[in-house]
Amino acid sequence: MNCEWATPQDLFDSLNKEFHFTLDPCCTIENAKCERFYTKAEDGLSQDWTGETVFMNPPYSRSEMPKWIQRAYESSLAGSKVVCLLPAKTDTRWFHDFCLKGEIRFIKGRICFGSGEGRAPFPSMVVIFNGAK
Known about the structure:
GO terms for molecular function: DNA binding; site-specific DNA-methyltransferase (adenine-specific) activity. By secondary structure, the protein is of the alpha/beta class.
C-alpha cells in the first residue's frame, strides 16, 4: 500500500497564499510544492528547517507519521512555522501528543489527492504549528 499522497494543487495554493511557504521537506521531485524541497533520498527529517515556513504532507504510514509530526512540532518550538496536511486520526497518540498543541482546521468532505481520481478514504485536517511562543 502506498503511504505517499500527493497534495491537491488547489489546497496547496490556498494555504500558500496565506503562509508563503519556503520549504517542502517530504516530497518527490515530481510533486514538490516549494522551490526548496527534500526528497526521501535527502531525508527531510535530518535536515535543518530553522527559520523556514514549511509545508508538510508526510508519508501516511503508521511508522513514519509520528516522526514527521514530532519534527514539525519541535521545529516550531525552534522558530519555524510548519503547516501540515494530515489524515484526521483523532484517536492516535501523535494527534494527542502534538496536533492538539497546534491550530487544527478540519477539512470538510474528503479531498482528492494527486491526479484527483477519487476521494481519499479518510477525512483530512490541516495542523499549524506557529513557531515559538
